[in-house]
Design goal:
Length: about 575
C-alpha cells in the first residue's frame, strides 16, 4: 500500500454545528481543498447593528491557493448566503450546483460586484464533476423544502463520502422530482466510507410529512376566507408557493407578491419551470387594490418577523401601500426558526389588534418541515451502509440523538464522532478521528454593508445598548490646570444623584489627578513651554475616570474623555512664527 492509499481526507466544518445556519464544510486531501456550501446565519438580539453572521473563514483565507472549487447542494440562504462575502476575500475557481441555486447565486454575486471572481456551472441529477485531481463529485437528486436540491457522493482517494445535504424523504413531491434512493442504494452496495447527514429533526420520531400534506388545509382556509387573504411563507419555499398559486387560481383570487426576495425567487423559479402559472394570475398591488376583497391574495415575506420584511412593516402600519383592515385573513405558512419566536408573536399580536384573523401554529397543518425525522434518517443509513458516520447540521443534542440512531442501525460508537465547528476530522480507510482544530468563530457584517464588525466593536455596542455612555469634555492649560469647568453628558445612563453634583464630582476627580500626576506627563524645557505627552495624559485620565465613575454610579457605562489642549508655539523658521495645537503635535 503506497503513502497515498494510507493517507486521510480531512473534513473541516466551519459552520452548521451546534447551531442552525451558516453551513460551510471543507474537504481537504493533500494540497487540494473543495468547499461544500457557504451559508449565513441571522444575528441575535444582542448583535446590535449586525445584518449577517458568517463563519470565521481564516483557514480558507490562509489556504486560498489550495481551493479547487465549491459544491452547492441547494439554494437556501443558510447554504449559499455567504458566498458573495467570501469571494471578496478569496477566489473560488468554479462553483457547481443546481440550476435554481445557481440562478439565485448569480444575482447575488452581480449585486455584490464579485461575479467575475468565480465561474458558475449548473448541474443536473447524476451529473459527475471533477474538482482538482482528488475529488470526483456526483449530484444525486433529493427532496427538501426548496426545489432543485441535491445529496452528493464525493469520490476521494480513500473512498466515497456521501453528504446528504438538507433532506427529507417525500414520496409525493410537488414537482414530481423524487429522491433518487436507487442511486444511494447503489453506492451503499459498492461501499460508502463515510456518511455525513442532516440532523435537524433527529429528536423527532417517525417520518416527516410530504409537502403535499398542507394542500387540503390551505384549500380549506381559501374556501373559508371571505375578505382579503394574506399568506406569508419562506421566500425560498418554491413548492409551497407553487401550491398557493394553484389554490389562488382554483378559488379565483388574483395574486400580488410583496417582498423583494419572494419576487426574485418566483421569477427565477418560473423561468426554470419550477413554478407554472399564467401571467394574468400575478398582478401588481395597484391593480389588486381595485378588486373586491374576496378576489385578492397577497403573498408576502415576513414569516419570521424580520424587522424590514413586508409583513412586519404592514403590521406596524409602516408599509406605503398596504394596511390591515377588518375582514382580512393572515396565514403564517411557516414555523418560527429558533430565536425568531418573539418577533413572530409580536407581529401576530399587531395584526390581530388591527382586526385581522390570523391563522398560525403547528396544529393547523399549514406547514411541514423540510428535514427528515428519525425514520427518514434510518432509511438513509440503511441504504448507504456507511463504515463511518458524521452527524452534522444541528444543535448538539440533535447530533447526539442522530449518533444514537446510527448506533441502533449497527454503526459502532468508535466509528462516529460528535464534532464542533473548526474540528479537523480525518477519515482514512481504517479510522475516523478528530485530529486538530482551525479557527471557528464568527464574522459579523455591519448593517451598512461597509465592513465587518469586530468582537471589540460588538462588545462596545452591547455596552452602549445596556448601560449607555458618559462623555466628559475638559480643557487643560500648560500648567496642568482646568481652564473651565468640565462638561459631563450622559446618554442612556440612569443615575440616582443630581447631574450638577455629578459634574462637580467629576471636576474634583480631574483636578486631583492633575495635581498629583501632571509631572508624569509634562517636562520643563529651559523656561519655554513644557513638553507634554497629551495623548498619554488623556489615556490615563480616561482610565481613571472609567474606574471612578463606574464605582460611583454602580453601573457599567462606556466612558469617553474629550480633552481640549492649548495651542503650542512653534519655533521660528524662515523669520516667521506659526502656532499649532498640541494635539496636532502629538499626532
Amino acid at each position: 500500500m503506497n503513502n497515498k492509499e494510507k493517507s486521510a481526507v480531512k473534513i473541516i466544518p466551519l459552520g452548521g454545528l451546534h447551531e442552525i445556519g451558516k453551513n460551510t464544510c471543507v474537504f481537504e486531501y493533500d494540497d487540494e481543498i473543495i468547499l461544500l456550501d457557504a451559508g449565513l446565519a441571522f444575528p441575535t438580539d444582542e448583535m446590535h447593528g449586525v445584518n449577517i453572521v458568517l463563519p470565521d473563514m481564516t483557514y480558507l483565507r490562509e489556504n486560498r491557493h489550495k481551493i479547487k472549487g465549491m459544491i452547492v447542494t441547494h439554494g437556501h440562504e443558510d447554504h449559499i448566503g455567504g458566498i458573495a462575502f467570501h469571494l471578496k476575500q478569496f477566489e473560488i475557481p468554479v462553483i457547481y450546483g443546481p440550476r435554481l441555486a445557481m440562478t439565485m447565486l448569480e444575482g447575488k454575486l452581480e449585486e455584490a460586484g464579485v461575479r467575475a471572481h468565480t465561474e458558475l456551472r449548473s448541474v443536473r441529477p447524476r451529473d459527475v464533476v471533477r474538482l482538482g485531481s482528488s475529488f470526483l463529485v456526483e449530484f444525486i437528486r433529493n427532496t427538501h423544502s426548496i426545489a432543485d436540491s441535491f445529496t452528493v457522493a464525493i469520490h476521494t482517494p480513500v473512498g466515497v463520502i456521501v453528504h446528504t445535504g438538507d433532506f427529507k424523504i417525500d414520496h409525493t413531491p410537488v414537482d414530481g422530482e423524487f429522491f433518487d434512493l436507487h442511486r444511494l442504494a447503489e453506492h451503499g452496495e459498492k461501499g460508502v466510507l463515510c456518511l455525513i447527514s442532516d440532523s435537524t429533526n433527529a429528536e423527532v420520531p417517525g417520518h416527516t410529512p410530504s409537502e403535499r400534506s398542507v394542500y387540503p388545509n390551505l384549500d380549506r382556509i381559501f374556501s373559508q376566507a371571505s375578505g382579503r387573504l394574506l399568506i406569508t411563507t419562506f421566500a425560498s419555499s418554491v413548492h409551497r408557493i407553487s401550491m398557493i398559486l394553484e389554490l389562488a387560481k382554483k378559488h379565483k383570487r388574483v395574486v400580488s407578491v410583496v417582498g423583494r426576495s419572494m419576487l426574485n425567487v418566483i421569477a427565477h423559479a418560473r423561468n426554470l419551470g419550477y413554478i407554472k402559472c399564467e401571467d394574468e394570475l400575478l398582478q401588481p398591488l395597484h391593480v389588486v387594490r381595485s378588486l373586491p376583497d374576496e378576489q385578492v391574495l397577497i403573498l408576502t415575506t415576513g414569516s419570521q418577523g424580520e424587522p424590514m420584511s413586508a409583513l412586519t412593516r404592514i403590521s406596524k402600519g409602516e408599509h406605503s401601500q398596504l394596511r390591515i383592515r377588518e375582514g382580512d385573513t393572515v396565514v403564517f405558512s411557516a414555523n418560527p426558526i429558533p430565536g425568531n419566536t418573539i418577533a413572530v408573536v409580536n407581529t401576530i399580536d399587531r395584526l390581530m389588534m388591527q382586526g385581522a384573523k390570523v391563522i398560525y401554529g403547528k396544529e393547523k397543518g399549514i406547514h411541514v418541515s423540510g428535514h427528515g425525522c428519525q425514520e427518514d434518517q434510518k432509511l438513509i443509513l440503511a441504504l448507504t451502509k456507511p463504515k463511518f458516520f458524521l452527524p452534522v447540521h444541528g444543535e448538539y443534542r440533535m447530533l447526539v440523538k442522530h449518533a444514537e440512531t446510527a448506533q441502533s442501525m449497527g454503526i459502532p460508537p468508535e466509528n462516529m464522532v460528535i464534532i464542533r465547528n473548526g474540528d479537523v476530522v480525518e477519515v482514512s480507510q481504517d479510522s475516523i478521528q478528530i485530529a486538530g482544530k482551525v479557527p471557528s468563530g464568527i464574522e459579523l457584517v455591519d448593517t451598512s454593508g461597509s465592513g465587518m464588525v469586530s468582537g471589540t466593536v460588538l462588545k462596545e455596542r452591547q455596552q452602549l445598548a445596556e448601560e449607555g455612555i458618559v462623555t466628559v469634555a475638559a480643557a487643560v492649560d500648560w500648567h496642568g490646570k482646568l481652564m473651565t469647568k468640565p462638561e459631563v453628558h450622559l446618554r442612556g445612563v440612569a443615575i440616582s444623584i443630581e447631574r450638577s453634583l455629578l459634574q462637580k464630582w467629576v471636576q474634583e476627580r480631574i483636578e486631583n489627578f492633575l495635581h498629583y500626576r501632571w509631572s508624569d506627563f509634562a517636562q520643563a524645557a529651559n523656561g519655554e513651554q513644557p513638553e507634554v505627552d497629551w495623548l498619554g495624559l488623556q489615556g490615563q485620565l480616561e482610565r481613571e475616570l472609567y474606574r471612578e465613575i463606574r464605582r460611583e454610579l454602580q453601573c457599567q457605562p462606556s466612558i469617553t474623555l474629550l480633552l481640549q489642549t492649548p495651542d503650542e508655539p512653534v519655533k521660528v523658521t524662515d523669520g516667521r512664527r506659526r502656532r499649532r495645537t498640541a494635539t496636532q503635535v502629538a499626532s
